Amino acid sequence: MINLKTVRWLAAAFSIICVVQACTGRSGSQQQQDLAADTLKANALIKTGTRIQSGKSDSLLTLSNELYKIGYRHNYKKALLYAKIYDANYKWLKANHEAALKVAEQALADAEELGTTKLLPDIHGIISNLYKESGNYDLAFTEIDKAIKAARANHDTAEIISALGNKAMFTHSYYNYTDQQENDHSSLQLEFDALKMAEASNKYERMRIRFYNNIAQTYKEHKDYEKAIFYAGKAVVLATKYNQRRSLTYSYNWIGESYFGMGQRDKGFDYIYKALAITHDLIEPYRRMELYEVLNQLYEKTGDYKQSLAAYKRYDTLRDSMAVDKNTRRLNEMQVVYETAKKDKKIADLNAANGTSRRMARIIGVVAFLFLIMLATLFWQYLTIRKKTKIINGKNEGLNNTLLNIAFIQSHEVRKPLTNILGLMNLIKAENYKAEKQVLKMLEKTAYELDEKVRQVVKEAEGN
């Protein structure tokens, strides 16, 4: 039989299982709530990131880190993908081109794996700009053509405008980089074509900033300074409206050089230093390096070689600190590796999922362990009860045999002497209770026989 102690133990085990299951249920429910909350947070971060990609770089780092946390916590691939895009932008703005390209290519591989075509133009655009800034125009044009193709496939007018603007800028930069300015007959027209698309709707107003700046740069290089100042001024208005401070550094740059070219040198330097101050505030060493190069050239033209040398030293120090030449070589090497082998993805997207799986596995393991203990206990109790049942059944069988023997003795052997005694008593009664000696001896003998039979019954009963 199951004793009271065993019953209590089983009740305690059952209670533990119920508590674990209840906790698991609450944990699962809590995880669903956490996922829902983090999904809303991730979408809000993504929306913010879309607005500030040209803003302060530290803001991009904060957004990227938050999205990484959410992505790894829930294995939320959308959050991880945007985290990498913002991370690549941040590293690009910090002039860490090698790391930026690595992250951008991871984002591209993830987007292709997930079938997220919406983000392909943006990612190809980042990669193309990195190659352009490293002087690898062949790869820059290859990537920007991929961006244009993806944008058209998505029927995304904003991305088409952006990609066309990049191609126009690359074209212009290429002819400057190769000192073939006289052969640049297309970049300005490409800029105006893209600007026309951006001016067709107010929703593309912010996108006009880059085109005003690029057109201003081209006019400045053509020494058409009034037009350069006009278009750069339009860029200043919109860049201020949308807080695009990095874009302001270009607007002030072109305005400053244009005023310098028109003979208003002090005014020109003022604008260049305004742009330089913004790069310090935004912590953008690459733009700061470019502006010191401009200052070096302008001071040299004024004959102020002391200031020219100071600007050049700052430019050279920044260039060395950012290892621009090394970055250029590494970017080319990485692109070859990526195009030939698509690079092995070295990411930890499954960390959060693995952590959740391990946590759930521990809970399930505890429940399973308790369940096995309960099964083992019940099986042991079954064997004990079975054994005792066999013993009881065996005893019952022996008892039945004993009862049969007693019944036999009682119905046959005990009945005989008892009948004799009754017969002799009737005889004595008939003689008026007077008996002969012979009759009394017979009565005595029969009584002994009855006693023997009674003893036999008792012995039979005691034997079981």
UniProtKB/TrEMBL annotation:
This is Histidine kinase. GO terms for cellular component: cytoplasm. Belongs to the Rap family. The chain crosses the membrane at residues 363-383. It comes from Mucilaginibacter pallidiroseus. Keywords: Cytoplasm, Membrane, Repeat, Signal, TPR repeat, Transmembrane, Transmembrane helix. Residues 1-22 form the signal peptide. The keyword Transmembrane helix applies. It comes from the Bacteria. The keyword Nucleotidyltransferase does not apply. Pfam families: TPR_8 (PF13181). PANTHER family: TETRATRICOPEPTIDE REPEAT PROTEIN 29.
